[in-house]
Write a structure and sequence with these properties.
The protein is mainly alpha-helical. It is built from 12 helices and no strands. The two termini are 22 Å apart.
Length: 294
């Protein structure tokens, strides 16, 4: 993927994520005032008006980046997806996060869209690269010639699908842990979260189940592709994702106070970072092996 396109995707994604944090703090002032009154930003460090103005600036900048990307690639897909995510995060912060499971799903889906967006533009970049190769070698561009690049694109989509599902599940776990962490304030504001509606113990069982599903899928994938992933993948998985997942389940089981859940939140972030970081190891182990269309 060209550097400019990649930079615009990353830039707009970071901007919209930052905007999501700002608008979430804006609407969570009362919850934050109850849960952590000394460390909250909106209301202490910055005013509500300043927070809203910052949110608008971040969103406008993100949309402008997506518009430039759409102009360069002659596609409006990313701009449409980004505007949709902006709307979802707004409604999540203002109301949906108080609805049982809906808020968790919105955040998880929004996060899972990021790898999919990368795959979308990578697929188009591969097709453009293939067309340029055909043209430079004086080969007539036909549907049959273009179809030779399809297996690579489909394979990329398959790999990205695994990453997207991983991100979705881990972020969903993170949201449940966050609900446990902020239960006192969310209960005061009459939010209908999993811990409040079904109880802390059932929320913990949900975390155990999702962690088990994540690691089962990881283990099966590693076993099925052991030859291409090599032992470095097994070692990395055991020392990072599996170790952090076991630690998370143990800590969640014994957690009673907000400080305990704060450590659990850190572990969910480490699991997510470990999964994303593996993409670099995977790219190293499986470099794109192009066949020149000569």
């Amino acid at each position: 993927m060209p550097t400019l396109e990649l930079s615009l995707i990353i830039g707009s994604t970071v901007l919209i994520a930052a905007g999501g944090f700002v608008i979430n703090d804006y609407y969570d002032m009362r919850i934050d005032e109850i849960n952590h009154p000394l460390t909250r930003l909106v209301g202490n460090e910055i005013s509500k008006n300043a927070a809203m103005n910052l949110y608008i600036v971040l969103c406008v900048a993100a949309v402008l980046c997506s518009a430039v990307l759409g102009f360069i690639t002659q596609s409006v897909d990313f701009c449409f997806i980004l505007v949709t995510v902006v709307g979802l995060l707004w409604f999540y912060s203002s109301s949906y996060k108080r609805i049982l499971i809906v808020g968790n799903l919105i955040i998880s889906l929004s996060a899972a869209l990021i790898p999919f967006i990368m795959a979308l533009f990578e697929g188009r970049a591969i097709m453009r690269w293939w067309m340029e190769k055909l043209s430079s070698n004086g080969i007539l561009i036909t549907d049959d010639n273009l179809s030779e690049a399809t297996p690579t694109i489909n394979y990329n989509y398959e790999i990205i699908a695994y990453f997207s599902l991983f991100v979705f599940a881990v972020v969903f776990i993170h949201e449940i842990v966050r609900n446990l962490y902020e239960e006192r304030g969310e209960r005061e504001m009459e939010c209908h979260t999993i811990p409040i509606v079904f109880g802390q113990q059932n929320a913990k069982y949900t975390i155990y189940l999702l962690s088990m599903i994540i690691n089962t899928v990881c283990i099966v994938s590693v076993i099925n592709h052991l030859e291409e992933l090599q032992l470095i993948t097994v070692s990395y998985y055991i020392c990072s994702i599996l170790a952090f997942s076991i630690g998370l389940c143990v800590l969640v089981k014994n957690a009673e106070f907000a400080k305990d859940y704060k450590i659990c939140l850190l572990l969910t972030k480490l699991i997510l970072i470990s999964g994303i970081a593996y993409s670099f190891i995977y790219a190293y182990l499986n470099p794109n092996d192009w066949v020149s269309p000569v």
